[in-house]
Amino acid sequence: MKKVFIVANWKSNKDESEAKDWLDGFKIQNLELINKEIIICPPFTLLSQVASEVISRKLKVKVGAQNISPFDGGAYTGEINGKQIKEFVDYVIIGHSERRQNFSETDETLFRKVDQALKYDLTPIFCVQGKETKVPPNVAIVAYEPIDAIGTGQSDTAENAEEVASFFKKNYNVQYTLYGGSITSKNVKEFTQMPNIDGVLIGGASLDVKEFYAIIQNA
Ligand code: PGA
């Protein structure tokens, strides 16, 4: 049975009480998770809370960050570095198109972020927008997220995503490829049943715990 990653990217959403409500909803669910790696990526402000609730509620999920500083600790006002997030997470999303577009993150910056993640033993989930996106060395998980599919309700076709996933496995030393972009409980299986797609990265549909639960069940 192949391993399937199901990653919730909450983006810049939820405050403490909303996160608690989501976790309350998650706790009561009796999920069958044998081959599934569930990763919740809250904003930085909720990492501590979600990480400790995951432990106290004995949830079979991992926590990830949505970003990491390209620098180590020091005089970098406003940045959160790898050593700091390592206290709470195992994974970190790097190179999301929203960061490339809105925060002008360049390939050089993203390569440095990957270096920082690896230095602190964090697993990068490196987002690529298409075959032309450069992948830094030693990235094990790539998430293919075509820009037109993000938040639009118009996912890529599973066949095209499969083709891109196999391209990254062939051309880079990538172990797992995920697909992201308008995934819901209705279309998730089309993607996860593809031989080279090892999971999904979910934005909007991950905010509602019931829908996220349905995605996990159907994946
Ligand atoms: P979406 O976002 O599921 O809302 O399309 C996916 C992502 O940006 O990771």
In round numbers, the mean pLDDT is 96
Separation of termini?
Answer: 13 Å
Shape: globular
Helical content class: 25-40%
CATH topology: TIM Barrel
Which CATH class is shown?
Alpha Beta
Q: How much beta, percentage-wise? A: 15-25%
Rg, please?
16 Å
Q: How many individual helices?
A: 8
Can you count the beta strands?
8
**Judging by the overall fold, what is the CATH architecture?**
Alpha-Beta Barrel
Secondary-structure topology with pairs:
Elements: E1 4-9, H1 16-27, E2 36-41, H2 47-56, E3 62-65, H3 82-86, E4 91-94, H4 97-102, H5 107-119, E5 123-128, E6 141-144, H6 158-171, E7 176-180, H7 188-192, E8 199-202, H8 209-218
Parallel strand pairs: 1-2, 1-8, 2-3, 3-4, 4-5, 5-6, 6-7, 7-8
Helix pairs in contact: 1-2
The chain binds 2-phosphoglycolic acid.
